[in-house]
Amino acid sequence: MPPLTKNDEVIFGKNSDRPQNEVQEVIYVKERARSSKLKCTYITIDESYNPINSVILSKPAWMWGAEMGANNKNVVIGNEAVWTNNNEGEGDARQKRLLGMDLVRLGLERGNSADEALDVIIQLLERYGQGGPCSEFDDSHFYHNSFLIADCHIAWALETSGKMWAAQRITNGFKNISNGLTIRSKIDRHSEGLLEKAQAMGLWSGRGQFDFTECFSAGGDERRLKIGERLLRQGSATGAFGVREMFSVLRNKSSGICRGPEDTFPTQGSQVSTLSARALCVHWFTATPDPSVSYFKPFIFTPNAQVSLMTASPNEPGWQHQLYKLHAQHLQSGHKNAVGRILRDLERGCLSEIEEYDGDPTTASDLDCLMVKCTEAEAKLYGHNAPGTVVEEFSF
């Protein structure tokens, strides 16, 4: 958050660690068929009566919901799995309800600001609950969820245990989450009767300051959380944290923030977004695993924005979209280092051109196919798959 960032932007970043071989697609949904009911991953809920936002989503291809994404109102959301000690009744995450990923997508589709998206997720959580297997083939993979929600002005951390929740408002500094509860006594909003319920469950004595994490946490990845905090603090020390610095954090292997394909839960997709009330809001997606060897491609919401069909998964076993297949072949090739260097050059070129762009995104047709062009350049490079390959330059 400002004032730690370049140009007073809000910088959002997320890695999505998912089961091995699970494909994550990137899709743009401008309009979809609507009726009075909406089928999410496991359950059907009431559709919104209000217009829904256009969204770009990085999502496990088999489910309706998304790990992360953005909407055309400059709201971004990502979620993380958390494990809590509230696992009976409404807290039983084995029961098929709304997945945390469903709540991410619903918050983006229905929320016109970070505040509104928070309200959407809270209301749906309290009405329908959360739960259900979070893997296509492993029924034992289930959990509660935490969320980072941001727009150009503020951010929220929302952490849950069943239908209970606590939220922390972030207006400056930085915040990171990593598969564990982090909200302690600084709570700006919480579910009704939270303290009384915690006391009735024997999780809080009722004396002293209430601590959400101390009451409900069943453990988390504290090492990765602390290293993430250190990386964000170091990267923002000069008050100029930007996209490049967030790329670097998400590509950090030694911390476990970035996980390669050999990991039990590898990083299957990554997103970085810059949110600004005065300049372009840009959303960068890999659409491929392991950001240390992947290429971030920019997307900007325009009236006629597009993404490539190469990042959309076919409805068939394996769900492998075309870019995923080409990327996997690239990692097995003997020229991956040479190709990787060219990809980083393309990425740096995109960053430089976007930083210098001074047009109006609401009328600039040159931004409509930005992500499509970048995806096609990446695919062309993988297709040639040889050192010294020349990829045609493009500008906007």
UniProtKB/TrEMBL annotation:
Coiled coil: none annotated. Pfam families: Peptidase_C69. Belongs to the peptidase C69 family. Secernin subfamily. This is Secernin-2.
